[in-house]
Amino acid sequence: MSKEIELLNMGIHLCKQIKDLLEEREHRNLGFKQSVTKNALPPLPLEHEKKIISFKRHES
Questions:
Q1: Which end of the chain has fewer CB atoms at under 10 Å, N or C?
Q2: How many CA atoms, within 13 angstroms, populate the side-chain half-sphere of residue 50?
Q3: Residue-by-residue pLDDT tens, the chain, 60 positions
């Protein structure tokens, strides 16, 4: 009977470790998403500066 209790306690301990690791991973992912959003490049302008090209007519 004591072996069963020992195995149950080990199982509970493993479940707690897995839960902690999953929470830690979720926290890291959230921190990463926030840092990417915070440091994101500014949006590109919709219009680029227009260059005016003038052509000279050749008169013959």
A1: C
A2: 5
A3: 799 999 999 999 999 999 999 999 988 888 777 776 666 666 655 655 555 566 666 655
